[in-house]
Amino acid sequence: MKLNLDVATPSKPEWIKAVMADFDSFLQDHADCERKASAMALSMVAKYPDRVEIIPELIETALEEMEHFRDVYAVLAERGIQLAHQIPEDLYMKQLLKRCHSGRLERFLDRLLIGSIVETRGAERFRLVEEALEEGALKRFYKMLWTSEAKHGHIYVKMALNYFPEDQVYNRLEWWVEQESEIIDGLEIRAALH
User: 54-70: buried (b, 16+ CB within 10 Å) or exposed (e) per residue?
Assistant: First the structure.
């Protein structure tokens, strides 16, 4: 059953053109994003240790994201590309987090829903990458990735439904979809996931 909501604004065609024109930079950014996604799931475990119902899923998500990082790193190594020396500021995430509620319970819900939004956008963009690639191992890799990211988009909503009423979750998720759309539209197009 689909739990997440689709992105409101599809990625612009200029985005995939920028990615394909500088795929090595995209891969470096992609590796950084996988590392950060794993860290985000683990930070939820650290911040909300009393939410025992979702800790196993958060750990599993963190492990999957770390496996994705490992796999992207293997692609980088195969191409003779190093990881970026510095992870640039992620304006996308910064703007999302700036819009979170500040109360502990409300922020908990927002963090889960941001997880869903980010994973859903990742799935949408990885699908575009997969469609743009020629047949081969890299195309198959990005197909696996977009299906995995889509699954994570559902998981974060499922986690929220453990603790909050369905109407509250979906009203807030709709709000987040609108916020994410506004943010993604305002970002510079570059060879990066966000």
Answer: beebbeebbebbbebbe
| pLDDT (tens place) for every residue of the chain, 194 residues total | 578 889 999 999 999 999 999 999 999 999 999 999 999 999 999 999 999 999 999 999 999 999 999 999 999 999 999 998 887 789 999 999 999 998 989 999 999 999 999 999 999 999 999 999 999 999 999 999 999 888 889 999 999 999 999 999 999 999 999 999 999 999 999 999 99
* 11 contact partners, CB below 8 Å, separation of at least 6: 124, 125, 128, 184
Q: What is the CATH number for 155?
A: 1.20.1260.10
Question: Could you tell me if residue 25 is inside a domain?
Answer: yes
- How distant, in Å, are the alpha carbons of 21, 39, 102, 106, 183 from that of 97? 30, 15, 10, 13, 11
Tell me whether residue 29 is in a domain. Answer: yes
| Number of domains the chain is built from | 1
Say whether pTM exceeds 0.90.
yes
> Per the domain annotation, does 6 fall within a domain?
no
In which domain, by residue range, is 68 found?
A: 13-186
Return the C-alpha torsion angle 81, 70, 26, 147, nearest 10. 150
